Amino acid sequence: MAKKEEFKEFVKNNPQLLKYVKNNEMTWQKFYEMYDLYGEDEQIWSDYQKTEPKVETVKKENKITGMADVLTWLKMIDLDSLQEGVSSLQRVLGVFQDLSGNKTTTNNDKGEYKPRPLYRHFED
Fold this sequence. Notes:
Elements lengths: L1 H12 L3 H6 L5 H11 L16 H8 L4 H9 L3 H22 L24
């Protein structure tokens, strides 16, 4: 049981091993067997313990930094698909408006109805 705990500490100290497991290049079982056979100090771990670029530098490279980058980003937008999305959103909102009964347009072209008095006949 102590070997298992030592392996857990080894993995905590070498988090880059997780990348190989996530990419299905290795399994934890194979890593454990290698650890059990060779221990921590062997050359076998050199292939798996390569240092990777830090996440902060990658995020800085992906960040939009200038006006030229913003214009390039705007040029990449497909206006036709954007228009289709806006029109479909308008249709959905129209359906919800119809279902809720809140009609903004009313038919007031005819004016108000006023009943004719009973004592008047044919506009006398």
